[in-house]
Amino acid sequence: ETFVHESKSLTLVLDNQKIYAYEGRWEIALATNSISPTTYSLQKGIGEIIRQKQKGAGQELVVLIKPLHNASYRNVIAALDEMQINGVNKYAIVEATPDERRWVEMR
User: Fold this and answer.
1) Collapsing DSSP states into helix, strand and coil, what is residue 14?
2) Radius of gyration of the chain (CA)
3) Could you give the C-alpha distances from 74 to 38, 51, 54, 66, 81, in angstroms and in order?
4) Calpha distance 5→2 (Å, rounded)
5) Measuring CA to CA, which residue among 39, 22, 26 is closest to residue 100?
6) Residue 27 burial by Cβ neighbours in a 10 Å radius (0-12, 13-18, 19+)
7) DSSP H or E run through 13
8) The whole model's pTM is what?
9) CA-based angle 29:106:52, to the nearest 5?
10) Residue 5 and residue 53: Cα distance in Å, rounded?
11) 91 to each of 7, 32, 48, 95, how far by Cα in Å?
C-alpha cells in the first residue's frame, strides 16, 4: 500500500450525469461535507477541479477514477481525456467502495 498525502490526492466518482470529487479519505470528506458534485464540462466541471487541485499538488497529484455501474464508457473516456489535457501523470481506474456507491445512489 502506497501512502499519498491527502492534499495531493483527488478522487473522482463517476456517475452517468455527474462526477463527485473529493480529496483525501472518503470518511473525512463525508464527515466534513467536502464532496463536490460537478459535471463532465471541460471548462467549468471536472477540468476546473483538476486545475485547482494542481495548483497545490503540482506534478505530485494522484487521481483515482472510480466509475459506478451506470457510468458509460464515454464518461470514463472523458475522465481519462481530462488526465491527458491537464497533464496528470499519476492516475488509476479503481472500483468505488460500497459506501461511495450507496452515497451516490441516495442523491
Assistant:
1) strand
2) 13
3) 16, 21, 24, 14, 10
4) 10
5) 26
6) exposed
7) strand 9-14
8) 0.92
9) 35
10) 13
11) 15, 24, 17, 13
